[in-house]
Specification:
Layout (H helix, E strand, L loop, with lengths): L2 H19 L4 E7 L7 E3 L6 E6 L2 H13 L4 E7 L4 H9 L3 E6 L2 E6 L22 H14 L7 H17 L4 E2 L11 E2 L5 E2 L2 E2 L4
Parallel strand pairs: 3-5
Antiparallel strand pairs: 1-3, 1-4, 2-3, 5-6, 7-10, 8-9
Length: about 200
């Protein structure tokens, strides 16, 4: 990698950190039109699970057009620096990195370089922190693939993701809501008579 490119990458990381600390700082993130959550992509070389961050709206929109050619629907969301809490929530989704684009150069920045995940040992005595990042991440990939226009290998890919999601589900610890007075569990009844019990993958 050339020294000039290294400088651009370093400056890109510095720029993100500067904008996060400035009250008027802003940046742009790609959102999946399938999940209405940040679009997640797995880097084929590093296997980082990344969300995409841009410093100008034009570059972000250009990326959405590129993804649209691959039948991957995304939109652009502008975030202010005060909304940086979004990065902490990415931990529970299983996302570990940000894909940055700065002055035509691209790099990856680990989320732990920006925000530190709270150690579970710091939790109050008796409390249990529940999260299932791998299950959540697989579900995100499944939803992104399920709701995009089908291609020749879509069915097989969905089958693989579903099997992986079921395996993650079996290993998960989940949260059930219980009413304090009766210890009853709430149910959701649809118009067609079907009933569902809400189950949560994490407190968020």
């Amino acid at each position: 990698m050339s020294d000039e490119k290294n400088v651009e990458i370093t400056e890109g990381k510095k720029e993100l950190l500067i904008r996060l600390t400035k009250e008027e700082g802003e940046f742009f993130i790609l959102m999946s039109a399938c999940t209405r959550a940040p679009y997640v992509e797995c880097d084929p070389e590093t296997f980082d699970d990344e969300v995409m961050i841009y410093f100008d709206e034009q570059s972000a929109k250009a990326k959405t057009e590129e993804l649209a050619q691959k039948k991957i629907p995304t939109t652009v969301l502008k975030l202010a620096s005060k909304q940086m809490l979004v990065f902490t929530t990415l931990y529970t989704v299983g996302v570990n990195a940000l894909h940055l684009s700065f002055n035509g150069e691209e790099t990856t920045m680990q989320i732990q370089e920006i925000v530190k995940k709270r150690d579970q040992k710091e939790a109050p005595d008796g409390s249990v922190w529940v999260e299932n990042p791998q299950l959540h991440l697989t579900a995100v990939y499944f939803a992104q693939e399920l709701r995009r226009p089908a291609e020749e290998d879509t069915k097989e890919h969905l089958k693989e993701l579903q099997e992986e999601m079921l395996a993650d589900f079996r290993k998960s610890s989940l949260i059930f809501a219980i009413q304090k007075d009766t210890n009853a569990t709430p149910m959701i009844k649809l118009k067609d008579g079907e009933k569902y019990q809400p189950v949560f993958t994490d407190v968020l």
